[in-house]
Structures are given as structure tokens and as C-alpha cells.
């Protein structure tokens, strides 16, 4: 079953095409890594398929009414904005907004989801602290927990692990894998190709104004593509410890 | 919720004090009896026609300024935002000033407030046209600044060209804001706008909560940003326009009250709405009692006092903020 399907998606900004003719589907139980150099349009692609900006082509998510879409897909923007010094728990509880009626207050199930998300992101101990007083990496975890609490079949996250310490980068990617194990899916943009190869079931490579490749990590990141799109070389091997991927040199 | 009851109690107490404050020296029991039982005596007249509308307007205007201030700060995610930002109070003042200048205000009792309401309507339509139907918070601020400065410039122009010094001084005094000598007619004129505006603004809580995470995240959580902004602008225009129409410009309440109460509601933008409505009512009641007690002979203007008290209060908040940031 496809959770989202985009067909011939294109976005123009200020008269210039950011990308065009992007088509792919995300089914249940996938962790799809969206990779590409700066300016390739990763954020724009995610926002377009959610219907947050004007685009050409089709996206099944953007076609839905806003309230329904919010129960199908959670969105974690790259800008880690927490405007007010509200408690960590309050921020995470915002993830329940799409599930509440107009005057309905959070119930038992909402609190359980929030507690699980806090636990998952190792935030239970700081649940009462003002979110604005946490470090950047901790705030990122709070916002990931917020998106997890939304409890949607699809989670779309824009560079969620940027700025996290190595342990939390790995555990966040493992959380995404755990979501995939229970049939949910994640679309995650990232720059760390090593983590992408290890933890994603599939990679979508964006660059040169189009989608260059879509498939299993080992097949997408060929040396020729790396050289052409990123201008780097890398070492890649499937070891006993799983696939290991290490970018090496800048080629140009 | 923990602070709702204490705030409500404070508002009720100040409302009673406001009813009992005035140049006519009347005992507590007598005044309340006259208020409740009515009759044709001078006492009942003072209570029902002078003090009651004054206290009621203080509550209505205070609640309006507090609520719209909290909503504006929540929408813009900026603690320095205030209801006057979208230019409604400026354009309402322009309408009133034109009414005074042209003599409309003198020709019939509701001439001034009706002209001010017309000014507010014109201002809000212009802001919405400038900001565009799908614009962001930035276009709304810019539109508001454009309308505010245009209204300010036109008001200054009217003053500048005023051939009549009495009209000019009347304009200046009116713009300072006051609740003195208002009647129940003013209450009935402002009430429908304020009820509509307060209802629109009170419905914003959930959306403003979601906006804590930014416009993109809120939109992806199913919040209709276009609708939210429309409700905010129309609601603010209703309450601020009606408030300015009957009482002139009363500054600082919409800025300071949400700021003071924010820590007490855990910074929750939705909860801050109602708390600020109550807090605003309390602040305007208190200020209006103070203008009668401090200088009973001199007709001290309410807007002057709120600014005098508000500015140092704000300074104190800034200093506290600076300490916290270090």
C-alpha cells in the first residue's frame, strides 16, 4: 500500500526550476533517505509533497484536506523553532493537535503517546523543563518526539539528525527503523551518507534539477554518481558489521 | 486554570471599587442599593448612568486589549507585538479626529464613535488588501505599519490644517484616551463588536499553540493559516476599533498584560488568551480608578496613566529578561 505517491512533481521559484519531473512512491515499512548536495531541493521537495508550497504535477498527500493529511503524515521542518518557553512535554503534546476535536482536551491515549515519544527520545527526565532552555541538539530531539507523538503512518523529517551527538544520531535513525518495523514509513533528508547507507532501506538522490536515482543504498551511491553529483570519492564495503560507507576526498 | 479564579476575583473586586469611586461621596450600601433598585433619584442616576457604564467599558476595553494583545503576540511569535500593530487603532483615531474636525462629533452624540468605527473598518480593509490573502506574518506587519503611518500622517495633517484651536485641543485630549463621561449608549454601541471580536479571538487557542513550532509545522498539523489570520485580523479590528471608538487610544495594556501573565500560564499561547483578557480588564479598571483617585480635580487621562505605569513595568520585564539570558 502506498502512503504517498508523487508524479512529475516540479517546483519553480523566482522563475527558476528547482527541480522537475520527480516521481516516486513510499510504501509501508520503509525508511527512505533523501540525499543530495546543498540547493538540490530536498527541503523544497518535502514541502511540495506536503502541499506547503505551490508545485506542478501531483502529490497524493497535498491533494488531501489539511486535517486529514495531518493524521497521515507528520512534518518536522529543518528550522527548529520553539517560540515560547513552554515545557518539553507541552511541545510534544502539540503533536496530538491533529487528533483532537475543536474543544477536546488531551485524553488518556494522548498522554500515553506523548509519554512513549518522550521515552523514545530519552527526554522523560526533562519533560518539565522549558524547551527553549535546552541545547540545540536536545531541542531537535524534542521536535522529533513531537513528530513521533503525532503517530502518523508517514513521518517526513528535514535533517532531523543534524547537530545531534553521535549516540543520538544513531538512536534517532534506529527509532526510524523501529517505526518501519511496525509498518510505518519515514522520509528523511540527511547529509551523513554513512548513516544513510546503514539505516535507510532506500535512498532517493536529488540533484541537477531532477531525481537522479531511487533504490537500495548500495545501488544508488555508485562511485560515478558520487563524483558527478557530490564531487567526492568514498569507500564502501558490506562488512560483518553491516554496510560501511566513508566519504574520502573532494574531487574538484 | 489555576490563575483563572484569582484573576476573576481581582476583576470582580476592582469592578466593585470602580463603581464606588467618584466625586459624589456615597456610602457603599447606598450606592449598591441605588444601582440595584433603580428609581429616579439622583443617586440611582449617578450609579446607573455614570459609574456603571464607566466600569463596564473598563472591563470590556481591558479584556479586548489584553486578549487581542495575547493573540497578536502568539500569531507573530513575538512578545513585543501589540494590537495596534495592524493599524486599526490609528485608523479609528483618524476617523474620530475627522469627526471632531468636521463638527460631526458635536452634531449628534454617536457621531464620533461611529466615525471611528468607520475609520477602523477602512483601516482593516486596507491592511488586508496590502497583506494579501495568502501572505505570511511579515506581510501583515508591513501592511499594518503602512496603514498606521498613513493614518498617523493624516491625523497630523488634520491637526496641522485645523483652523480652530478648540477643535485641535479637543482632538489632542481625545487621543489620550479616557472613560470619563461615557454613557450606556457607548456600552451598547461597542458591545456587539466586542462580543464578535472576542469570540473570534478566543477560538484561536489551538492554532496559536501549534504556531509555537512555526508556520510550516502548524500548517502541516492541519491548522488553516489563512483562516487563522483572517480571524485574528477581523477579531482584533472589531475589539480595538470599538474600544478606540468609545474611549480613544489606550496604549501599553495589550503589550504589557500578556507579557506579565505569560510565566503564570507556562507560556502556553492558548491559555494566555483568557488570562490576558482577565488581566487586561483588571489593569484598565485599576488605571481608571487611579485617574479618579490620584488627581480627582484635573481629569487625568486614562491613556496617559496606562502609558506612565506601563513603560516602567515594561522596563522591569526587559531587565528581568536580560538577567535570564545571561
UniProtKB/TrEMBL annotation, chain A:
Record-annotated ABC transporter domain positions: 4-233
Any GO molecular function: ATP binding
Native organism taxonomy: Bacteria, Pseudomonadati, Pseudomonadota, Alphaproteobacteria, Rhodobacterales
PANTHER family from the UniProt entry: HEMIN IMPORT ATP-BINDING PROTEIN HMUV (PTHR42794)
UniProt KW Translocase keyword: yes
Alphabetized Pfam families for the sequence: ABC_tran
Name of the protein described by the UniProt record: ABC transporter ATP-binding protein
Functional description taken from the UniProt entry: Part of the ABC transporter complex HmuTUV involved in hemin import. Responsible for energy coupling to the transport system.
Keyword Disulfide bond applies: no
Keywords attached to this entry: ATP-binding, Nucleotide-binding, Translocase, Transport
UniProtKB/TrEMBL annotation, chain B:
Main location: membrane
Organism, scientific name: Aquicoccus porphyridii
Homology family: Belongs to the binding-protein-dependent transport system permease family. FecCD subfamily.
Compartments (UniProt record): Cell membrane
Keywords for this protein: Cell membrane, Membrane, Transmembrane, Transmembrane helix, Transport
GO annotations of cellular component type: plasma membrane
Any single biological process term in GO: siderophore-iron import into cell
Bilayer topology: Multi-pass membrane protein
The protein's name in its UniProt record: Iron ABC transporter permease
